Fold these 2 entries.
Entry 1:
Amino acid sequence: MPRNQQVLLDNRPQGEAAVSNFKLVEVDTPALEDGQVLVRNHYLSLDPYMRGRMNDGKSYAQPQALGEPMVGGTVGEVVESRHPKFQAGDQVVGMGGWQTFSVVDAGVPGMLRKVDTTHVPLSYYLGAVGMPGVTAWYGLVKIINPRAGETVVVSAATGAVGSAFAALAKARGCRVVGIAGGPEKCAYATAELGFDACIDYRVHNDLKAMNKALKEACPNGIDGYFENVGGYILDAVLLRANAFARVALCGMIAGYDGAPLPLQNPALILINRMKFEGFIVSEHMEVWPEALTELGTLVAQGKLRPRESVAQGIENAPQAFLGLLKGKNFGKQLVKLI
Amino acid sequence: MPRNQQVLLDNRPQGEAAVSNFKLVEVDTPALEDGQVLVRNHYLSLDPYMRGRMNDGKSYAQPQALGEPMVGGTVGEVVESRHPKFQAGDQVVGMGGWQTFSVVDAGVPGMLRKVDTTHVPLSYYLGAVGMPGVTAWYGLVKIINPRAGETVVVSAATGAVGSAFAALAKARGCRVVGIAGGPEKCAYATAELGFDACIDYRVHNDLKAMNKALKEACPNGIDGYFENVGGYILDAVLLRANAFARVALCGMIAGYDGAPLPLQNPALILINRMKFEGFIVSEHMEVWPEALTELGTLVAQGKLRPRESVAQGIENAPQAFLGLLKGKNFGKQLVKLI
């Protein structure tokens, strides 16, 4: 059996996460038992939710166990199979974790899924046509549920979720405004991703400035907001929200390091008769087929052309992950494992 | 025509509202035009939303105009009618304002409604079987939508909304926990209003103490919260909320005086996958018939026996209103005008 390289959670962060929280090890891959499949992972997905798992506190998911490989989505190829539905050479998506090989109980529902790479590149199944894409779909379609002509806003606009959000919202006739960090990302958002406008939060770096920028970018106010960040941007959105605006709460990156970020004026939720809804997409598996079909179609039509940031080699996964938390990635953050 | 006593908004509050913001005047009642009705108001309803109207800022409703009688719900008796659907002696509910007589354009939908006092006292149409009752109904039924066995919590528990909320939630098989100020109100909540438990916020007057009290009163966590107050109580509720808990935002009294009350940890909305929804019941007229029918039935069956705080005479309306904002009322706050 091949040797397997793994990145383990070695210890929990005190405040900011650091490279020293992780540990790279090499182990043997065990012999397969009946029903198991050995997958050579080609790409590992890095996502903000992983930061939450590193903590021990109350959250929607179990904390990541110490001494175990970090959890994470992967795409790869079946090397060996003792499950009748899979065979060597199959391209698959699953939750292989931060490791170069995974042994998967392929019969457990949701563990491993074959994918077709005829029209969609393999790595996209970790992004636009995977969990981030479905996340954007759920927040837009099931929570914001916009009418044509409404204005919707998304933070972390050039990331995997934001890119998909823009394509899905444009397909519904919305005005789509992004918020991203830096002129390069903002230019990319409007030139490549279809955003009608994009606000640079590094320039508009406080409540007053963001409020002004949103007022200009959203002359008819804000009807829907997809929240990936938290903090003063959400406060500013509330100041520009129309009556009956909807907020899909998907991420609060800035708060993961332990410092709670207050919402300055929650009375605006009442004053504007708004709806806030937090969600995690893995609890809504019933929408995945419909969402993946639409996302795959948008990719095949060239209407969704997400960018990827690819780190090379599993040994660089921790550094790439910390960069993601600080917004250093540009598009979907992946680690290429082969 | 009789002389009409009115309380006008004379000037807007700077911070806390004060008696000096109001002015009592006496004017002639004008002669009726075709389609108009003259109503002798018997009771005026005092409600927290009126504080919001006194400000000039952005809110869901137009600010109360200066030099005009304060807006407000009233019940009374028709004195004279030039509208075919009303005649002298009819008992009616409407938005007569802070005055002893109202001239009403009775043909405008929603302005004036005849009521039946056979089983329901006239004043109840301003409370349990009126706007506050429907408010409780909407938040509970349309937003919280509880299943039997779930735990729901309401602040301002012994007020008109809270009383109705308790009866409606008990009818749905919920555990109902109230939050109120002082041992007398808490004892009344459990002895008379059907609450399973009631927490005294004067004793549990910070986040930590309220969190502990909620933990004891809600051993299975909180599935629904009806927010009438804002501030640290909402923060504490979030700490005890179950996954998929729903919050109906109806009032934020403590914030009306201008000081915004932050929500300390909005990331909990995401972590608990909660739903927050702000509403004002006058925008949901379609539910009123169903809600009023259920509320009237609960009153007739003796399952909803709300208490009333009655101030005597329109000249005492401002003082009673300020007391309401400070929680000095006990049950529905009314002003008796005759």
Note: Chain B has two domains: 3-127+306-336, 131-282.
Entry 2:
Amino acid sequence: MKIAVLAGDGIGPEITGQAERILLALRSDGLKLELEPGLLGGCAVDAAGEPFPEITRRLVKEADAVLLGAVGSPKYDGLPREKRPEQGLLAIRKELNLFANLRPAILYPELASVSSLKPEIVSNLDILIVRELTGDIYFGQPRGIERREGQRVGFNTMIYTEAEINRIAHVAFQAARKRKGRLCSVDKMNVLECTQLWRDVVTETGKEYPDVKLSHMLVDNAAMQLVRDPKQFDVIVTGNMFGDILSDEASMLTGSIGMLPSASLDDRNKGLYEPIHGSAPDIAGKDLANPLATILSIAMMLRYSFAQEEVAMRIEHAVRKVLAQGFRTSDIYEPGMKKVGTREMGDAVLANL
Amino acid sequence: MKIAVLAGDGIGPEITGQAERILLALRSDGLKLELEPGLLGGCAVDAAGEPFPEITRRLVKEADAVLLGAVGSPKYDGLPREKRPEQGLLAIRKELNLFANLRPAILYPELASVSSLKPEIVSNLDILIVRELTGDIYFGQPRGIERREGQRVGFNTMIYTEAEINRIAHVAFQAARKRKGRLCSVDKMNVLECTQLWRDVVTETGKEYPDVKLSHMLVDNAAMQLVRDPKQFDVIVTGNMFGDILSDEASMLTGSIGMLPSASLDDRNKGLYEPIHGSAPDIAGKDLANPLATILSIAMMLRYSFAQEEVAMRIEHAVRKVLAQGFRTSDIYEPGMKKVGTREMGDAVLANL
Ligand SMILES: CC(C)[C@H](C(=O)O)[C@@H](O)C(=O)O
Ligand SMILES: CC(C)[C@H](C(=O)O)[C@@H](O)C(=O)O
């Protein structure tokens, strides 16, 4: 199992550092794996002049899975668009055909009071958002800023083909089947033809999954329902743009985005795994970042790319124990708990593994 | 002052009915106004075969302001796109050039515990969302569903011109100036060129408002920050699509969307005023709907279209008193309060006026 480790920017190196310690411990335990470091994002711009250099491209093509820390920093805001760190992320998704982004929003009972929502609204929250990741307005052509009749005009194209919708729908239906059997597809069919097609195709695909209860919701309503009563959802499937917004909203419901991992998969279980939080340049290098989302991303990697369900669960249990023992980085700290830094949190997980 | 009243579908007639009673009471008090009923949405489809008939078009063109109840019902889901009730709403916005949608998200102290968020997170919440309403992917061309290389493809165009961004930015800066002087512009500039132009033009416009503190936020982060700490915002300005999502999310933070009015304005203070909630077909005709959002929409009308600040405040005070007296429709009901229907709530406001 060859794993490319792209630490990225900001707190990236610190949090992937702790995840690597876990992986190395599992290797001593007998798991066959190789770690290969690579550059993506701002650090790649600094070192190689572009956010997704050819050498990284080759590395991730050959790897069986990719672990990513986080990319981006306001430091690069002034660069031309194609040189910005986020372009590296978009390029790697497209290059590896990572069309299925799985983002769980789980509230750990130990952290229930960290949420800004009332405990009864979010306790035991367990939603999975399936976001299409290689299509939509993120990649649609034509796009740009032009001068027309004496003024600037900015434009982008939202576009989905039947095949793109169909394949992400299958991923979502299959995920729902393994959970509570409910899938809510989110669109804006009352305004956008593109998402009318989305609704039509998801409905058609649903005929193959009579055991899954399919419903549809408009995106504005979904944004409301996530706040009003998030536990009504099991699996949500939506396009790239709406998924970007709703998955961030959903993760914040838990109050602990430092805890949430994600997987981005192609059609053969190759995947990129990363915490859903950003590169947090303000706390970088200070041993303050929460490494648990990255450590839980390894669990997802072992589950989805390497079919090592048991090892995945070992990691997840270790994280639960660490929370039960009261270890907290500052993002999830509450009075009475043990405040620890990035490295000590890694120690605690290792000790429980 | 000629006011077109478009009751619309579902609970529309009931809630505009109560608002009309208030307007008529103000007329007896000396306010010069005329009410003219018209059809929009599903009721217009039923009566005239289209959601925005020519006769309604003429009525609203001549009126100084429009009061709208709500449009839409699943009953019309099977109709071709151009006949659906929502198309009436989009068409009237475009026809009257109502580019500036003002949506306050206010939490009334009396209703603090109705919210799904913790009271300390939302108490005294007072945000104004300024949403561009006649551009963006809502109206962009080309759009449609086509067959290409043997499969269906759906597409829409997100597009903004410099002039469109500039004029909504002015509205937002001026609103911020009258409030706490802070404006947050929301975009997705790291992915979408269209919104890169948005950020550039808003920044340029901001030079004319050195007294307003301008900040920028990515839409995914904004969706999170609204949940994490909504009180960090004063005025938010954004495009039509993001505004649709974020304004619904923001209004749900208050837990009482039955309380929230909205104004959609052109560049000469003509406006359409409507509650932000929908047509709620499930409770239509049952005297259950909360008329307060519609009544507060009249207050906005008197303020923005007719410069009757004093009368607007009289209505708003009456609504506050009614809440203080414990009157509650079922959407905001809590034990210990007086549960009332739509009409009784109207009575209570009238009594306090
Ligand atoms: C950094 C950005 C391009 C990216 C996205 O919008 O997809 C991020 O927000 C995410 O959700 O992974
Ligand atoms: C009904 C629909 C077309 C409309 C919109 O998306 O603008 C509604 O959601 C709104 O926000 O007024």
Note: Chain B has two domains: 1-99+266-353, 106-259.
